[in-house]
Amino acid sequence: MRLIYNVIYTALFLLAIPALLIRCLASPAYARHLKSRLAGPGKILPKLGGRPRVWIWALSLGEVLSARELARRLAEGGADVVVTSTTLSGIAMARQLFPDLATLPSPLDFRASVSRFLDCVDPDFLILVETDVWPGVLMELKRRGLPCAFAAARLSPRSFRNYRRIRFFWSKVLGLFSSIAVQTDEDLAKFLELGAPPDRVRVTGNLKFDEPGVGHSLEGREILLAATGWPAGRWLVGGSIHAGEDILLLELFRVLSLERPDLRLLIAPRDRHRFGAFRRHAREAFPEATAFRSAPSPADGEARVFVLDTLGELRRFYLLAECALVGKSWPGRHEGGGHNPLEPALQGVPVVSGPSIHNFKWMYRALSAAGGAIIADRKELPDVMADLLDSPGKLARMGAQARDFVLSHRGAVEKTLDFIRPPGWSPLGASAKAGAAPEPPQAAEAAEPAEAAKPAEAAKPAESAKPAEAAEPAEAANVPEAGLATVDLEPKAPSSDKAAAAASPAGGPAAPGGAS
Asked: What was the pLDDT predicted at 216?
């Protein structure tokens, strides 16, 4: 199996060399990043006081954010944690979130690259987060007798269909994990159908439910408006908006604002390479009333339409929202699939989404049932939004129910760690260091199964986000940051997304995760 995989992986890498060379020439930072992934860290990373070393591999920025509480609890429990990421955006975020931990680029899946990395880092345990599986890494760990776990594992419908066609391969790869902690009952069934050992798979939930958040408050809103010079009013925030959806929201705003002169619209592009197009569309639609976050102006106080053309601020700007419209859900020039609604929900902001949400089907179904979200297609959207804006009490109830939904489903980090049990992990020690904070209440349907092989009674899916560089267009832009702190608006390193990472076949045939 390893020989066949190495042949395929090498062939894909050779095919990708022209594109990689172009990217390296366009971005010296990417060239250094690729060199590190090929050759390894270049020096041995000393272990800290004999503590067990846990290696967390988070594919890109979204997965790094998901791993935030996991890494914190492991470190508090006595582990020597090393965080790696495949993309530049992921590395930049990891260095900001974990200044006291070692953060490195993940190795390419060549045996030589993996061996050099393992020789330098010398991990005792590997945790892959959410979506990426690297057969070369897993096989080398197996050869060295080192255990590994898959945390918050998930499978999108498209990925599942693709990997089911080569079940004979995936059953062997998944058998290399010592444990697989999945997000939902549906994911559990999918992994079992792909051949994962039943006694090593359990539903533990979505790590994103445990992310720290800030409450939606009038004080925080006023502070943000004062800092930006933007006007007061009633704000709609379109988050993670894809191509064509900006035009939909601009037209929606034109209709809604006719009878609501205090209405404001903020559009946050999902991908940085859309910044220019979104600015142009907004200026064409509202030539005298448009402002851009990247270019503050004294006239911004008179604007009505705003484009969040910066990195890492979307979570902060959800503070303005009376309602969040979450993108990649009104298909047009993109295939849809949805984005994770937890970010606005955690801040008490009601969510409106389009019907194309198959990558987060459980999440939206459960959030809608809890009263925190509404699904509306393009034709329904104007009437739905007009009704919400004319019903402030309903908006407030939805926001409270959205936040309650998130809080009631916390606990995935503890369940995950209790299941995968990395060496040296001490939950009692971690709880003491963390102040022994009580675990948030769990929703009735969030009960965990008694047997790993049986479907759990909790289901929690997820997804994420990623920034980018103009030369690397697929990378997501506005993504959540720690608390209210803003991720560097001028990032230290350009970034690339999962698709770009896959160009060097590290994300090629070996990534059974859901699409963004």
From this structure: 65
